[in-house]
Amino acid sequence: MNRPHHELERPGARRTRSRWWTVGLAGLALATTVGVSVAPAADAVARAATDDRPPTSDHRDDNPSDKGKGKKKPKGVPVPCTADALIAAITQANARGGAVLDLATKCTYTLTTNIDGAGLPAIATPITLNGGTHTTITRAAAADQFRILTVNAGGNLTLNHLKITGGQTTENGGGVSVAAGGSAAISHSKILDNITSQGGGGIFNQGTAFVTDSSINRNIAGETGGGISSSGPLKVVKSHIDRNTANVGGGVAAAGATVREGSITGNKAALSAGGMLIDGGIGTVVGTHVTGNTAGDVVGGIAVTDGGQLTLRRVGLTDNTAGNVGGLFVSGPISNGTSFAVIEDSLIKNNNAGSNGGGISNQGVTTLRRATVAGNEAGDQGGGIYNTLGGTVRLFDTKVVKNVAVTDGGGIFNDGGTVELNIASGTVVVKNRPDNCSGDVPGCAG
């Protein structure tokens, strides 16, 4: 469900405010409300900050294993390899209050008819679709535009070992749309190459969505959430949200989210938040690579806005790029509400901003514990960390090393906010260029 866009002030320009959506300036807003929360990751990535390595994850490119370690999929009613047979089976399952349907292996169900905006009847009861080796549901290239699946209020969709592809629509949800009051559980599946001119290229969620051991790749949204746009509870575990595209939130745009032990990589936003946008909710990212994302204007990696709360734990936030703010942006009262970020045991490295804030740009309240901010670059100020008026940054046992700014504050640039280094805890700010700190940063050696 779309809502008005917020105004957000470009870091470093406190008196210049404009609507980012219309002119591409530093605003971050979410045209579609969204929501998610996260669980802990494997201990194998616990030392990401201290050994200067990103977290480990089992990254498979568009190829989730067909041999999942989860529960065995329940046996159901066989569905012959024709679109008509699948449509009839879902229609009958809805009429009978639900069913488990076993789709044919090595089969592509090619949909040709638009049924109320989707290629299949809307899911209105608990229905499980079990696929297998090379089981695909797709829209025929010459067919009218429609998404693949819709889940209505009261519907409960489970997808196992399926590929959902080729959906195209002018409405929200290119591949799968989950209405408020509905739910979807997607396991060992691929949601890829779906397109919408609105929100949620792969998945649009207003209900509840749980994605595990799956790939959400190469989807496109004209507005928010190239991979996933969510306003309801969202949990993504051991999955890969890679190479999706949107105006805002290239990979994920959510009012809150849990992302654990996977990747958000190579996503693109034409305007803001190349990797992930947490807009006003609670977000947790654990044991995950957020790498190589880009934005045409603001925030290559992750943005938390509108009073949102974000926890990064054992995360590699690396090699993200934008015109302003490379890695992480945390909004504050001078834009659209004070947001909060806690970064623990994580690595923020090699992010690049054309202007301010190579690694982190903070207007809100950001706390780093046992983290490393290294090798980030800013075309103007704040190679490692850029902190603005009203912002607070607290560092505990954290290394800010070998960052570069073209103008000032190679390590940390404080523009009227508060920076607490907590040197006694082991925090060091060294080997940054052209200087370690600029502005009021108590305890920093120049």
TrEMBL record:
Biased composition (Basic and acidic residues): 49-68
Transmembrane segments: none
Region (Disordered): 46-78
Top-level division of the source organism's lineage: Bacteria
PANTHER family given in the database record: G PROTEIN-COUPLED RECEPTOR-RELATED (PTHR11319), OUTER MEMBRANE PROTEIN PMPC-RELATED (PTHR11319:SF35)
Name the UniProt record assigns to this protein: Membrane protein
Lineage: Bacteria, Bacillati, Actinomycetota, Actinomycetes, Micromonosporales
